[in-house]
Structure formats: structure tokens, C-alpha cells
Amino acid sequence: MEIDIGETHIRLKTDLSDHGLEEFIYSIRADLKAYIAHNGEFLHAMKPIKHESDDLSPIVSKMYESSALCDVGPMACVAGTISEMSLDYLIGENSRYSIVENGGDIALVNDRKVLCGIYSNNEVLGNNIAFRIKKRQKPLGICTSSGKIGHSISFGVSDSVTVISRYPGIADGLATRIANDVRGDDSETRVYRALETADEYGDLFYGALIISGGSVATAGRLPRIVETQRFDVKI
Predict the structure, then answer these.
(1) Is residue 235 part of a domain?
(2) SS3 labels along 87-131
(3) d(Cα 141, Cα 232) in Å, to the nearest integer?
(4) CA dihedral of residues 10, 16, 17, 18 (deg, nearest 10)
């Protein structure tokens, strides 16, 4: 199932047949748009900003929190936060198997094994590898940032940086933060620098995968990476 609302492009798999997720996403997007209309800095900030009021909608509050933890602007966490809140909504409707993908940022709960493709378009690795996610009862976030693919702003040149965390909004922000530091004269230097950044936030994520040119690095603990059939995605 696909849900397209403005800039939000959801691909959904769920064990629920009648869930009302589209209406929920309309609601949280309306809260976010209303806040941005009166707080332009929230939209454009590249670093964490302070808020004067504690009377915030859940989506805005979550984005502020993730932004502060990850040292990025609030909008760097928006796609992961929408995925996270959408999954929480589905779990509240008693889902045990739901995968919410929003522009490459995934929130999931799975009562069975699933494969999550790793899309980097890297010349060495290609697009035929995936994480094998064991069945689990708790939510998980798998979010990716890239300096070469997609529309999001990145100050680095990574093919992809994927972060796995309990909270998708934080995974989204950290993927951006780490990807910003994939910089240097060669691919080995770039991934080493990104690893140093990842180490600063090690208490916020389970694992990270950094791909740049001919170099690949990992931090923390990742699910098993397996070979799959080649796949492509719409950008």
C-alpha cells in the first residue's frame, strides 16, 4: 500500500486491513505545517534550536528532542519521526507486523523474519544486499542518508549511511549527522572520519553502516547482511 500526502511518501506493509493510517498522517502533518507557519526557523535550521513554549504537538516535540540529541536541525528528523509515529499508531491498533517506509526511513515491528534492502548505488557493493531482521516484538528504526542520492541536504559525499536505532526519528537524525562528516580526500579517510562521529553518539543507536566509494565501515552491532536479488527504488 502507498500513501502520498504532500512531501510524505509512505510505502506500507501491515497485518491490519482497516487501520485509518492515512487520516492519522494527515493529522500530524497538519500539526507540523501549522507550527512551521508561525516558526520559520524550525523549517530552515541546520542545528538544534530552542523552543519557548512547552505546549507543542507530539510531532513537533519529538522532532525537537531528536534534533537536540543528534545535533542536527529539526527537519533532518521529519521523515523518521513520521514513520515512527505511524508505526506507534499501528501498534496501538494491535498490529504485530507493520513496516512503514517514508523516503528511505523505516519503522517496523515484525513477528516474522524480514529483509531490509540496503540501497547505496555503490559501484562495488551494488544494490543486492540486505539486512536480515529477526522477528521481534519491539519497534525498530532503520534510516538512511546519502550525499549522492535523494533530495535531503547532506554536507558529506557518502553513498549511504544507515543507522539502526530503537527510535526512527533519532535514527534519521543520526544518519544525517554522520553522513555530514563523510568527507576527505579519499574514501578511507571519509569513512574513518564518519566513524569518529558515530562513536560520539554510540549510546543512541544499535549499529551503523557507512558506505563511500571503495570503503565500507560499521559501528555498533548490525543485523546479518545477506545477498539478495538486485533491486531498485524510485527517487
Answers:
(1) no
(2) HHHHHHCCCCCEEEEECCEEEEECCCCEEEECCCCECCCECCEEE
(3) 21
(4) -80
User: What pLDDT, in 10s, does the model give residues 43-90?
Assistant: 999 999 988 777 899 999 999 999 999 999 999 999 999 999 999 999
Torsion 178-110-104-210 (CA) sign = positive
Rg (CA), the chain: 17
Integer Cα distance of 159 and 217 in angstroms: 12
Separation between Cα atoms, residue 101 and residue 121, nearest integer Å: 18
Number of compact structural domains in the chain:
1
Q: Which domain holds residue 63?
A: 2-227
Measured distance CA(162)–CA(223) in Å, rounded: 12
Query: pTM of the prediction?
Result: 0.90
CA distance 218 to 212: 12
C-alpha cell at 216: 565500507
For residue 203, CA distances in Å to 58, 106, 170, 190, 221 come to 23, 20, 11, 22, 12
Residue 234 within any structural domain of the chain: no
Tell me if 175 is assigned to some domain.
Answer: yes
Report the C-alpha gap between 194 and 217 in whole angstroms: 9
- What DSSP designation does 204 have? G
For residue 91, give the CATH number of its domain.
3.10.520.10
